[in-house]
Amino acid sequence: MKSLGNIRRSFAPWADPQSKPFISFRNITKKFGDFTAVDNLTLDIYHREFFALLGASGCGKSTLLRMLAGFERPTSGEIILDGQDIAAIPPYKRPVNMMFQSYALFPHMTVESNIGFGLRQDGMPKAEIAERVQQMLKLVKLEQFAKRKPQQLSGGQRQRVALARSLAKRPKVLLLDEPLGALDKKLREETQFELMDLQQQLGLTFVVVTHDQEEAMTMADRIAVMSHGKVVQVATPAEIYEAPNSRFVADFIGDVNILEGSVKAAGNGRVELSGGDFTVRAVSDAAPAIGTSAAFAIRPEKLKVSRTAPADPAVNTSEGEIWDIAYLGDMTVFHVKLPSGKVVKTSMLNAQREVENPIGYDEKVWVSFAETAGVVLRD
Amino acid sequence: MKALGSSIFSRLVIIVPYVWLLLFFLIPFVIVFRISLSTTAIAQPPYEPVFSLADGLSGIIDNIRQLSFDNFVWLTEDALYFNAYLSSIKIAGISTLLTLLIAYPIAYGMAQAPRTWRPTLLMLVILPFWTSFLIRVYAWIAILKPEGLLNQSLLSIGVISEPLIILNTNWAIYIGIVYSYLPFMILPIYSALEKMDHSLIEAAQDLGCPPMTAFWKITFPLSLAGVVAGCMLVFIPAVGEFVIPDLLGGSQTLMIGKTLWNEFNSNRDWPVSAAVATVLLLILVVPIVFFQNMQAKADEKGR
């Protein structure tokens, strides 16, 4: 996971009621004919934040980004950037720049003139442009490719040119539309960290659109999970993963087991569910009414598989049978079939190089978890 | 064996266009060029010498001695030909420019149109080809003549008080060429514009270009290959155009196609008309080579 420096750890302007948001979407709605792409959405993004809009395709995340860039006008609502309503400002006058998913490099221009394009539009003196372009080329480590055309570059190099071009004008906000979508896995992982370093180094606000949850979790300070034009949850990656606020978020981010049950007791920060394979006793602030049905979400790595029964087999424990095993190197995934027939997914870190007597197929096991391991979902 | 088979096949594929060019371009050209070196005769065919294998080797050598460049010298002595070439190039040039000015916005509009409309729009562009070219040019006579459709409509709505004289002037030729060749300009420009990634324009705007600047800096340069192709497709045939100046132009209109027709049919002077045709071809080689160069450069870029 992300290595947090000291500065980074204390960076949480969203938690400080004194700090003013840098970008504010206020009751934004965008309709394309009958289709509502963005539905009465309100969202604040702070200065110097690395913010990710995460969701499946068609959830409205790209439309939101395009409204920020100025390519789409909101049907209603306002967008405030640095204290100014920008809804009526055309894209070529906005202090934001965008890195396009397709990179959109100008094929008839060299790398150099691609990067300098925006500066020439602003009428910057030639010497200054040359200097800034050099600086950008150095930043993305492409000095020796200045005279090449985009077609003569590899995918990763093009991505860097696109990044350099969108940063050259020193925008207040950099918008990134699926910035790493076209790169292969290894390069993508490298580039994620480079983007994070760059963002801190330049002190800019980054808004990135992605459908890749791992990418969002790696890079972003906060993530907005979107669905059907609405923001479902806005939180830090850890909060989104550990405390999803809905079945949708729990299911969308990572793997999850959802245990259904009816509420037996609730209050004093604790909830008890029964009715499934488990009697769930969990620490939770949720206070569902007694007798209603509720769900408990728990991540695979937080379920423990063992051959011997835990101390109190009555609570948060169930018997089961190993149904499937997937050995992934760093960890092993077990699918365990519970007495009701439900299959839960568990994963175990392979901390030892060699396992003497590994758990095998069809073996009878106990599945258990701690009271704080999962969340009670409110919906 | 397989490699040998495929190499024979690939050679065959390469040979086909060369054979085509040899049969339908080089050989006819050699025949025309050889006639241009002959002298007129009242005979069938109307020139001499006529080569025949029956003359034997000495006879053929004798015939070759009779060939001369006199007809080409003649072309330089009579100002008529020079003026006809010049005026053809001028008329073709102006017509090409006018065609471009009309075709570009149409092609641009087509490329911007919703994807579902585009096949229909394309069909509408090529629809005039379903009617004979000659009939369409004749129709323009009916439109442009003093008592024609255009003048009648303009007179009836009171824009003009007396008929405009358009037919039998150069304007009628411009109208005829622009109308007839418009699809040849629209199609290559459309194909260049249609391929363009719209996000390039958005990127230009994002970097500070107002829409008009974005057009001149991005859209136009990227459609240049289509513009050049369209201009060549209009200019080259327009220079040698005969039907349009003959039907729509006046008697004073001087174009090389008409001159060639006169030499060939009215004067029955095959050698001089062959010389005229040869020079016309040489003149047109210049823009063709230029075009080839552009294409090669575009290919280089595309790689």
Automatic annotation (TrEMBL), chain A:
SMART domains: AAA
Catalytic activity: ATP + H2O + polyamine-[polyamine-binding protein]Side 1 = ADP + phosphate + polyamineSide 2 + [polyamine-binding protein]Side 1
Domain ABC transporter: 23-253
Pfam families reported for this sequence: ABC_tran, TOBE_2
Record-linked Gene3D superfamilies: 2.40.50.100, Nucleic acid-binding proteins, P-loop containing nucleotide triphosphate hydrolases
Keywords: ATP-binding, Cell inner membrane, Cell membrane, Membrane, Nucleotide-binding, Translocase, Transport
Single GO MF descriptor: ATP binding
InterPro entries linked: AAA+_ATPase, ABC_SmlMolc_Importer, ABC_transporter-like_ATP-bd, ABC_transporter-like_CS, Mo/tungstate-bd_C_term_dom, NA-bd_OB-fold, P-loop_NTPase, PotA-like
EC number of this enzyme: 7.6.2.11
Task performed by this protein: Part of the ABC transporter complex PotABCD involved in spermidine/putrescine import. Responsible for energy coupling to the transport system.
Subunit structure: The complex is composed of two ATP-binding proteins (PotA), two transmembrane proteins (PotB and PotC) and a solute-binding protein (PotD).
Family that this chain belongs to: Belongs to the ABC transporter superfamily. Spermidine/putrescine importer (TC 3.A.1.11.1) family.
Record-given protein name: Spermidine/putrescine import ATP-binding protein PotA
Organism per entry: Mycoplana rhizolycopersici
UniProtKB/TrEMBL annotation, chain B:
Residues annotated as domain ABC transmembrane type-1: 85-291
UniProt keyword terms in alphabetical order: Cell membrane, Membrane, Transmembrane, Transmembrane helix, Transport
TM helices/strands, residue ranges: 12-37, 84-108, 120-143, 171-193, 214-239, 270-291
UniProt KW Cell membrane keyword: yes
Topological relation to the membrane, as annotated: Multi-pass membrane protein
Isomerase recorded as keyword: no
Matches recorded under Pfam families: BPD_transp_1
UniProt-annotated location(s): Cell membrane
Family as reported in the entry's similarity comment: Belongs to the binding-protein-dependent transport system permease family. CysTW subfamily.
PANTHER family for this protein: INNER MEMBRANE ABC TRANSPORTER PERMEASE PROTEIN YDCU-RELATED-RELATED (PTHR42929), PUTRESCINE TRANSPORT SYSTEM PERMEASE PROTEIN POTH (PTHR42929:SF3)
Protein name: ABC transporter permease subunit
